[in-house]
Amino acid sequence: MDAGLLLQIFWTFFLIGLFNFGGGGAMISLIQSQVVTLKGWISEEMFTNIVAVSQSTPGPIGINCATYVGYEVAGVAGSAVATLALVLPSFLVFFALVKVYEKYRSGALVGAVMTALKPAVVGMLGAAALILMFHFDIASASVGVIRENFGDWTSWALLGGTLIASLWRKVNPIALIVAGGVLGAIIY
Q1: What is the pLDDT of residues 35-66, one digit of tens each?
Q2: How distant, in Å, are the alpha carbons of 2, 13, 27, 101, 109 from that of 34?
Q3: Which of 87, 89, 146, 186 is the most exposed place for a label (fewest CB within 10 A)?
Q4: Strands in 38-91 per DSSP E
Q5: What is the dihedral of CA 40, 41, 46, 52, to 10 degrees?
Q6: Averaged pLDDT for residues 122-133
Q7: Paired sense of beta strands 134-137 and 142-145, if any
Q8: CA pair distance 31, 20, nearest whole angstrom
Q9: Which stretches of the chain are assigned E, i.e. beta strand?
Q10: Cα–Cα distance, 31 to 65 (Å, whole number)
Q11: Cα separations in angstroms, 44 against 50, 51, 114
């Protein structure tokens, strides 16, 4: 295997992982510009096929795409190198943040920041839930239920049951997800 090519693959995908903001979907254009336009490792048609396969396979689309591109360019070794290089920057940043947190977590400033973040996180989760449940039309100042998400009374019953089980009965969230999936499969 050509070590120089593997090093190029590593550096290319490391930079993509380092400078990508916005998740896997945003990463697709970065990968395309590098491997199709700049490097010429694969054709535009091949890249389109890679994106299609990456969307249809389990896992994050950006990582799937990097793995597949690496395989097309340099086989199994290229696949492993591209995948490792893509996730390495996020891992390093996360690891550094954990070390900083461990060092300063008993400090007053970190405690105050964490205390302040809790309501913000709850608010963001609540906002995401409301956005999935309701359609907000600012122009007409109207609010309506998104019928595709809550088409019948059983959807509302599942929501209510989940809230009760979670808030008052303290049921494990993983058990709630599994139960919701099973009940959804049975009901729908």
Answers
A1: 999 999 999 889 999 998 998 888 889 999 99
A2: 19, 9, 11, 35, 42
A3: 186
A4: none
A5: -110
A6: 78
A7: antiparallel
A8: 10
A9: 134-137, 142-145
A10: 8
A11: 10, 11, 46
> Taking the model in full, what pTM does it have?
0.62
CA distance 42 to 35: 6
Ramachandran angles phi, psi of 171, nearest 5°: -70, 140
Structure tokens at 183: 């009940």
Which residues fall within 8 angstroms of residue 45, CB to CB, at 6 or more apart?
none
Rounded to whole angstroms, the Cα distance separating 145 from 133 reads 6
**Cβ contacts of 13 within 8 Å, gap of 6 or more:** 31, 66, 70, 81, 82, 83, 85, 86
Question: How far apart are the C-alpha atoms of 44 and 134, rounded to whole Å?
Answer: 40
Q: Are 16 and 31 in contact (CB under 8 A)?
A: yes
Instruction: Identify the sign of the CA torsion 54, 57, 62, 66.
Output: negative
In the chain, % of residues over pLDDT 90 = 38
Residue 2 — left, alpha, or beta (φ > 0 → left; ψ -120 to 50 → alpha)?
A: beta
**Given 3-state DSSP classes, what are the helix, strand and coil percentages for the chain, each rounded to the nearest 5?**
75, 5, 20
Phi first, then psi: what are they for 143, rounded to 5°?
Answer: -130, 135
**Which residue bears the tokens 């303290």?**
170
